[in-house]
Design brief:
By secondary structure, the chain is of the alpha+beta class. The protein has one domain: HIT family, subunit A. It is built from five helices and five strands; from the N terminus they run H-H-E-E-E-H-E-E-H-H. Helix 3 crosses helix 5. 26% of the residues are buried.
Length: 152
């Protein structure tokens, strides 16, 4: 679940503490932040980068954590390019519920891979997303690509 769950637990706080990266969809951990697949992706490889600290506003994030988040985004974009060959990316934060934040009290940066022609009638008319791969395969491909980057 990629929201506060029925126990009122923030999954961006809980998932890293569980230390089961495959099950929690975490593809990369850094010192102050991590990257995980979105359980309800807009496209294949949709990632979220979040600090470990439960922080609700970008103004409250220290500079070193912000830098690490952007460097992790750079690394994840490289891995996404290698693993899935997208034509482009959307990057962004939805800060506060009124802006569309599903997890309003823990900031996170979305990385959404995009392909030419990826908007289709299923999303527009049926509010349904069509994804060619399951999350487990996406997780493995990204994990492998990130590990290859680290070894270079």
């Amino acid at each position: 679940m990629n929201k506060v769950d029925s126990r009122n637990v923030c999954i961006l706080c809980e998932n890293p503490s569980l230390e089961n990266d495959r099950e929690t969809l975490i593809v990369k951990r850094e010192k102050s932040c991590f990257a995980m697949l979105n359980l309800y992706p807009y496209s294949t490889g949709h990632l979220m980068i979040a600090p470990y600290a439960h922080i609700s506003s970008i103004e409250d994030v220290d500079t070193s954590t912000l830098l690490e988040m952007m460097l992790l985004a750079k690394s994840c974009i490289g891995a996404l390019r290698e693993a899935f060959r997208p034509d482009g990316f959307n990057l962004g934060m939805n800060i506060e519920r009124v802006a569309g934040a599903g997890i309003a009290d823990h900031i996170h940066l979305h990385i959404v891979p995009r392909w030419a022609g990826d908007s289709n009638f299923m999303t527009v008319c049926a509010d349904t997303r069509v994804l060619p791969l399951d999350l487990d395969e996406v997780w493995q491909r990204l994990k492998d690509a990130l590990e290859r980057q680290d070894s270079d």
